[in-house]
Structures are given as C-alpha cells and as structure tokens.
Amino acid sequence: MIQDFVADASMDINKQEWLKVEKWMTGSPAYITKERTLKEAGEKMLDNHIDFLPVLDESRRPMGVVTLYEVFRHLAVGRAGASLLEDCLAEQPIILPADSLIDISSQRGRYFLVVNEKGQLTGTLTRHDMEKAFRHYIETSNQKRHAAEALAVILETAYEGIAVVDEQAKILEFNEAYSRFTGIPREEAIGKQVQEVIDNTNLHNTVRTGMTERGVVQYIQGEAMIVHRIPIWKEDRLVGAIGMLIFEGVGEVYRIYEKLRRNVHEPQSVQKSVSASPQGGRLTSLDQIIGKSTSISIIKQLVRRVSKTDATILISGESGTGKELFAQSVHQLSGRSQGPFISLNCGAVPEQLFESELFGYEAGAFTGANREGKPGKFELAQNGTLFLDEIGEMPLLMQTKLLRVLQEKEVERVGGTKKYKINTRIIAATNRDLKAMVEAGKFRKDLYYRIQVIELTVPPLRERPEDIPLLLSHYMNEICNKYRLPPKTMTKDVMAVLSRRHWEGNVRELINVLEKLLILVEGDTIEVKHLAFLGEDKEKTPTASHENNQARLMDNVKAQEKHLIEKVLAESGGNKTRAAKELGIHRTTLYQKMKKYHIDD
Q1: Which of 197, 567, 584, 601 has the most crowded Cβ, counting Cβ within 10 A?
Q2: Is 12 strand, coil or helix?
C-alpha cells in the first residue's frame, strides 16, 4: 500500500511539493555546540519548550542530538557539567529540505536533522511533524482513496502505537507498533471491543463522554505508559476516538525525578521556562493556547512571524477571547522573553492616576504619594514588553502623552525633572472599534496608526465551534483541580449542546458555565437534564450565519498577512531571500503568497 501511495504521489506534482520536508520542518531551530555542557543544554531546552537539541560542530554541521531525558539521567548521577559528547549524543537521520516525507518515513529515528547544500543545519523535523503532515493531507484531500492510503501510511510508519475505535468502542484500526507492544496481531484486534484488547483502557469512555485526555498515565501489561485519548467529532456527532501510546515508559522518569528531589538542595541551576508576570504567575506560551481551528492556526502563524520584530502590535477582539494570552505569547517568542511582561488595564485606572501609573512619580510629587516615589509601568517594563489592555478606554489627554513617549522613546516621572530612555515593546489590545472612535474624535488618529503597525484579530468563540470540545475538556480538569472536586465527565449529548451554544461571553463565559455545572452537579457525570442549572429555557444558538462569520474572518486574516508581506518586502528593499527569512517562511512560499495576493515583484 505504501508503494502505491508513493507511485500516486510521484505522478502528482502538487502533492510532491506538499510532501516536501521544507513545508513541515521547523526552520532556524535552537541548537547547541559540542563544547557546551549538559546543564547548558537542559536550560536551553526548558527555555525553548523543546525536548531535544541538535548538537553542531564548529562549522554548524550536525553531529547528533541530545534529549531532555538524557540530561535528566546524567543530572541524576551528578554529571551536570559533563560534555555533550559523553554517553549522551544520539545520531539521527540527516535529510534535505527537498526530500519527500514518503521517502524518509521508513527511516528509523524520532528526530530528523535538515541540512542545506553545505551540510549545515537549517531545520529539524520530528515524527510528530510527519504525522501531522499526513493527517493534514487526509483532512484536505478531495479524493477518499488517497486519504485512506495516507492514513495507512501514518499507521504503518508511526513510532507511537495508535488504535482507532468507533462509537461503539470497537477497534477499527490497530497499527503495527501497538501490535508489537501488546503481542496481539492486528487482525485479531480489529472488530473487538477495545477493553478486550488494551489493558486499563479508557477509550470506551472517551466515545461516551467526548472528553480529550492528553499525557495521562496508563498501566499496560504492568508498565506505566503515557497515552493520549482524542475523540473524533463529525458535524456535532461523536463518531469514534483515537488512542495514542507514547513509547517512553514513565517509571524511570519518576525514579530520576525522585533522586533529583532528594539530592538537589539548592535549585539555583533550574531556569524558569517562561517569564514571570509582575504578580509572580506564569505567562502563557503559544502552544498552550487551545485551538485547532483554521482561524486560530492562522493567528498563531502570524504571531510567530511578528514576534521576531519589535513592531508595535494591536490585538483586537471581543471581551473574553483571550487577547492577553496572545500578547504573552508574542513576548515569549520575542528577543525580549528574558525581560519583564508588564500589563496595565486602561479601563481600570482612574483618569487622575493614569499619568503616575504609566510614568511613575518622584517622592512628594503629590499629597499621599509614596515617600520614596514609585516607578511607572514603562520603567518596570524596561527591556521587556508593556501590554496596554483596553487601550480604547484611555483618556484623550493621556493618549497625547503616550504618543509623545512612543515618538521620543523617553519618559519623565510625575514631579520629576529628569528624562530616561525607554527600551520597551508596546502591545495594545481593545474590544472596541478604534477606527470608528477615530472618526468620532474619541481616539487620536496619529496614536491609532502608531500602535496599529501590525493588527491581530482574535476570533470570537462562536466562529470557531470546532475548538469548543477541546476547551471544555481542558477547563473541566482545571476547574475540578481548582475547587478540589472529584474528576467529572459529561455525556456526548451535553458536549454537542454546548458546542452549538452561542457563547456571547466567549471563553470567559464558557469557564463560568463549566464552574456552575461542576459545582452544582453532585454525580460524576453531567447530563442534559443538568443544563437547567444554567437558568436557560433552551440552548443558545448562533444568531448569525457561521459561514458568513468565517468568511469575514478569513478575509480579515488574509488582509493582515498581505499587509505584513508588503511591509517586510519594503523594509528589505525587495530582497526576497531576506524577506522570506524575516517572515520565517521558505522563499518558494513567499513567491506563492506574492502571487496569491497579487503583490508586484
């Protein structure tokens, strides 16, 4: 079957282009050089939220990879300063950007190192990236035969064990990797109830509740394994589930962790994996933002691109859509990630205190002032990011002063005589139509164009209904932990009703509804009858056409992308290679987008 798929793909030039490594690899990846230590490698992996690092020689040629698992293993025996080349460097396949995913899928290894014509590292590719590529092909293919064959490739070549069940929890697919682990032949597993084949499985409950479970521990044949359980939805109907077995037993990881906990007294070497907020909390990274819809995926792509620059960003969207999460993600991906992320809600500051909040004040500046003075938000955000939430609520007088600061890059405290230079990136957010406010004279036009260099529009929840089951699953677990409630589930009928609901308050309303249900329902399962607790006579349904909303959203996103490409091309003087590098895409992709948006060469 793989041979037939390869033959078909070789006859279709478009599919050949789609299957190239360069389309799915991670470009300009983090790496480490061979003379560095394990401790430095571990810190870098934590900072970049990755579990492996390519190791390069002095010519930037890859020598292999070091994994987070190996770092933990060596730290456990007190070898934090050991060289990367001592017992932990693992060789991995070397591939080219033009290689086909089909051709390399049979090679062994979890990580692939992508090199250019000089043999220098230019990207990385993982098994997960390959499987995501094949899954994407299935979703977008208009030919069912090709989709079925691509699925077969995934199942046959996947490093992880994969089982697929229907809505009755009967096994539809059982790949070779799962078969090898369990010792049960695929032909014997197909058609049986999943409980009869897989020890301690919960997939039969997944198709009953529609709840996603990621990274949970399951004991199979007496060994602790990490598994994912993902429901399959089709037009508001739960039609099955996928179970994925990660072949990395967690027993030894637990033992290493316990040994580290006993032996390490001063955790000074442990670096923060994310920057801290002023309140001491953790910031959200882009991969923590829940959603697989097209609109959210496109916004994430734009965030990755604009984060590389210091351009001022305006994030627009309704209340409760998560604008601050995207602002934190921009900060995390930028070169300022080691600096502070300071947030100010402009709608919560009294007008008379605005100037002192933003710019700070000197000792004795006014009655009741702190005797030692107080730094403002700009000062606190030095070398970092200042997030101005609900900027549409800022008084006109403060808009004028803010504009002057953005132009002059200098701030003076209230009651002070000395100006100091600022080095701060500004990200603003609003749930109001600033353009209409400009026309009405309620927002300065010059400030609007100053903060709207790049605009990101976060879609409301009603325009991405496919993300609702993921959000419900995530926040159910989070809320149960928050209130120390026993784990609860909901029936697939409840999941379907809530997925169709018109969420006027967006994610914030979704969390509120879940809190009510989880606290008020006494049993361990939320059923349709319990929706009466919400105080509604009938479920809320969308008042506008979902298709029209999606179309408007896509037009908005495309306009943002075209504007960004034109801006970067202008800044690079028309140099396509430099512009593509700045945008974080391949030069071929840049040409395709220029053609798509009719951008003159």
Answers
A1: 197
A2: coil
